[in-house]
Amino acid sequence: MPQFISKLLYLTKGHHKSLLVIAFLLLIISGLEVVGTAMIGPFITVATNPNIIKTNYWLGLIHNQLNFVSEQYFLIVLGAVVLIAFYIKAFLSFEAQKAVFQFSHTLRGDLCHRLLKTYLEAPYSFHLRMNSATIIQNVITTTEIVCINVVMSLLTAVSNGFIIVALTLLLIKTSALAMLQIALLLPVLVGLVKLLKSRLAFWAQEGWSASKEIIRILNHGLGGLKESRVIGCESYFVQQMEQQTNRLAKNFSLNASYGNLPRFVIEAFMITFLVSFTLLYVNLNQGQGQNLTAVLGIFGLASIRLLPAISNLIGNINTFRPNAFAIDKLFFDFQEIEKSKSLSTGVSYRVNNLLSSSEPLPFSAWKQIVLDKISFQYPDTERKVLDEISLTIQKGQSIGLIGKSGSGKTTLVDVVLGLFLPQSGDIKVDGVSVYEDLRAWQNLLGYVPQSIFLIDDTVERNIAFGVPDCLIDLDRLRRAIEIAQLSEVVEQLPDGIKTVVGERGVLLSGGQRQRIGIARALYHGRDILVFDEATAALDTETEQLVTEVTKGLSGNKTIVIIAHRLKTIEHCDRIYQLDRGRILKSGTYQEVVLGQ
């Protein structure tokens, strides 16, 4: 339990004051609940037998101290007090309920925001081993489970717990015999809750697992729609979806149904109690019908409040317990990412904020980049993918990287991009380590991969990727389009730069998507452009067009190219051939490729 509380406090940090306010409000409500319910007995007694004022010490004291002119007037005031107490309690109960709902849904929004920020800032290696369906589910579904099924249920359970304890103390004072009868029925209820505990937890986790599979099937089926249509395997994904939706429906319906079972048992118990208590009281207390009326009045009203309170409490517990695993899901993701970000990698580095950096770039007038004995190996592997790689890149140079698959080309580029941190070695710009301000270094880099990521939005927003509309510089946008040789393409589009390109740019050709990727890097004013086999998937004619764009940038931009076809790096100033994480050859195109 202490571990659960510490995890819950970690996930709710920034909201602890709101929790204290809610707890204080719940205490006040439980107090008013007792006051209002306790006064029902005296009110009924005075209404049925006004002479009780003279024989009852407390009623007589209040009547004499306040100088009531008549018993009827005393009854009116007593009724007014009861009404005021219940109206105040009703108002505060509504406010408390609203506060609980607002707290839970606000917390969910905050967790979604924190999770997205954490995932975006997570080391690249974290995303390599995480399925995107799990990440999407955590942001959308797991946060809902935590905030609605766990936090809201827990707060509601605490609220009902306060009311149950307060009313129970009142009932014990009113009639110990009645409470003894209720106590005899409780073991059956507790046994039922314990019996359901493990099954409810199993059904909840099975439903959660089915939910994750549904997201994964959606990603696979819609993500490979073209291939699915050509192969004709749509029914495969439909069948998978049917299996998982049936699994989800079965487990969630069982969880919801049996979670409410104790409520129906409680209703039967309460009726059993009222009938048996009335019979016992009449037999044991002959001639005291008025007392029975008062006691039953208190118990009747208390039962009206206790019945839903106990039902809700058990329902909240049955909702909270099986879904508590979601707390661990989010907590361990936050902890794992924080731990992986803080691990020492053998180099001194500082990350100001991977989402934004307000500090001026220290590399604005740089002249050369030096990779000094860079070594890197993936977690849980024995072989180094990069083994003491050293090379120098002068400003304005074009560099080509070649080698067999698995030689380390892409990993080297990922290290240069700051996606991986080397176990040893350093990258320096004019003698200053880029790890002194990694974000500032990344602000110099533009990346054009083999498959350009395009959002389902306009050409304008795809080029000015990540820039709010109000901050888009149209002059810079136009220059980037011209240099990337996209002007003619944009002119032919129905809405120009306002044309929506479709999901992943499906309405554009491969060459057009690549040139949008180049324009994106140019718009953001990046000095160093990295092309990771950017023309590998293009036909010869389109490849030639994109290659001409990169040639035109030579001298003005520093370019690093991973080559799929050797002809695309013919214009490079220097070629590096990698083999098993080492530089095998380096020199001009004629020296390395042609062997002259």
Based on the model shown, name its key terms.
22 helices; ABC-type transporter activity; transmembrane helix; six-stranded mixed beta sheet; about 65% helix; ABC transporter transmembrane region fold; Rossmann fold; ATP binding; alpha/beta; ABC1_TM_sf
Widest beta sheet: strand line-up: 6-7-8-3-9-10
Q: Rounded to an integer, what's the Rg over CA atoms?
A: 36 Å
User: Which regions have little confidence, pLDDT < 50, spanning 5+ residues?
Assistant: 344-358
CATH class of the largest domain: Mainly Alpha
From the coordinates shown, what is the CATH architecture of the largest domain? Up-down Bundle
Q: Between the first and last Cα atoms, what is the distance in angstroms?
A: 73 Å
Alpha-beta content class: alpha/beta
- Helical content stands at 55-70%
Oligomer: single chain
Word description of this protein:
It is found in: Cell membrane. Residues 20-320 form the ABC transmembrane type-1 domain. It is a multi-pass membrane protein. By secondary structure, this protein is of the alpha/beta class. The protein folds into two domains: 13-331, ABC transporter transmembrane region fold (Up-down Bundle), CATH 1.20.1560; 368-592, P-loop containing nucleotide triphosphate hydrolases (Rossmann fold, 3-Layer(aba) Sandwich), CATH 3.40.50.300. Helices cover 64% and strands 10% of the residues. The chain contains 22 helices and ten strands. A hairpin with a 2-residue loop joins strand 9 and strand 10 (582-587). The termini are far apart.
